[in-house]
Design brief:
Elements (H helix, E strand, L loop, with lengths): L7 H14 L3 H5 L1 E7 L2 E7 L13 H19 L6 E11 L7 E11 L3 E10 L4 E11 L12
Antiparallel strand pairs: 1-2, 2-4, 3-6, 4-5, 5-6
Amino acid sequence: MDSTPFDWPAWIEARREIFERSHSFNRYIGLQLQAAGPGWARMRLELTPDVMNPFGAVHGGATSALIDSVAGTAIAAGTLPDDRIMGTIDMQVHFLERARGAALIAEGRMVRAGGAVAIAGVEVRDDEGTLVAIGTATFRLGKPGAKRRHNED
């Protein structure tokens, strides 16, 4: 077994390349990966006009995208050395309170990863500390060590 410690800063930087720098919906809405470790991740979403609904509240789709992304990142961090995520197959979101402040912060934790699926739970708080949403996301997993592209069958 390799005794070299895992390089979390390098892994986080590679994930930031996916979420924050590559052309994607995640970049468009401004998702930011703040931290991650074995089976967990934390992301931030600034509350800009692009993520608000016509009534001045965070759009539910933006909150759902945050939950989906942080859950997937937590599972990716929990199934290393392979990034086995193939795609989201189910997700539930419960909206609890209207967000206040300037950002949403979501923390996801992998609950379980099996041979074919994994599940993560997520709490979303505004930057004033109010719990505004909770969710779960289930992901299809590829085989360990398989050569593939992301979200490929």
